[in-house]
Give the backbone structure.
Amino acid sequence: MSRLMRPPDKFLPSEWKHANQMQFRSSETERSHSQRLTAECQRLVEESDRSTKHMQQDALKKLEQRIQDIKFWRQELNRKFEEMVQEIETLVIFKSRVERALESCSEPLQVTLQCLTERQKRVAIDLVHDEVEEELLKEKEVIEGVMVLLQRTLEQINEQIRLLRSVKYYLEKDLQDKFQAERIDDFCSLLTNASPGLNGGNSNFSSLGSAVTPEEWESLCNLNISKAEKEKNNSLSLRALVDSLLEQTAADMHRQNKATGRAFELRIEETKTAKAQLENQLNELLAETANQEKNLESLRVAIAEKEAPLKVAQTRLSTRSQRPNVELCHDPAQIRLLEEVKELASNIERLTEALELSEMELNALARRQLSLEEEIQVKTNSLYIDEVICHQLRQPVVIHNF
């Protein structure tokens, strides 16, 4: 207890001086450290200010460059878009031309079919597969071929219009996206540190802008433009084809129409001559009857000789139809067999027709021995059909350029 109540120890003067020196040095050290920290902070503030200004200027420059890039591609896309609109309108006009051409084929076809029907009313030997009928059948084939070709062309035009509209849709969508992107970047380029309403937005930017690289973005723009250019070229080629097709088909129909008209004129002249010569035929009937019988026999022999090759070809076709899976190929052998069957059948058919005509001729020769007046009436009927009915049917038909 006596120790606790003892007064504190006193320091020596040297200790007092030493303690003061220590305080001086500590204060100096802290002041120096504070000054260095203040200088470093000031340097950091100035450096961050310079960096911020530089980054903002660089970001603004890149935004402006990006806006220029978007404007450039918008102009390119808009040019292609306008081309697509114009091309679609032009192709629609071509479609209307093809549709009108298709409609204008109906009347000539009906007239041709009606002439064929009327000429079926010829009787006896005059019901012959003559040049007029061949030309009428050619005319029918030409018109039907033209209609099929025009219909196929119309389908191609419709498909091309669909493709052009598809390209136009994607161009329009790309233009809308770029318009919106340009507005956004324009807005961003106008923002300053003093702009109101700066709230920072979404603070998580790590995943933004990573979906498409600038190279991919430009490549997609080029892809849309390339598709547009490709479809435009396809459309131009199709229009050139349609122009050529319409001109050629009209020329074909006109040429065939004239050929059929010439065949009618020749046939009418031939019929008139035959009618005038009927009386001279009487003396030659017997000899002609013998010749016709020989002709009839040769036709029968020819038909009989064609039946075996036809059965061989048909048997080959039937047997080859049993080939398995992909081996059931429409190969050259199959094509040739089909052609052989068709040609043999056609030959038999034509031979059969000739046989029928020969038989009719024999009957006609026998009838004409008894009554030349009946044969004259047959010719009169044929002349009436060809010279009056068919002529009146065909006269109003005019083949216009499509």
About this structure: Helices lie at 13-104, 106-119, 131-190, 214-276, 278-281, 285-320, 332-370, 372-394. The radius of gyration is 50 Å.
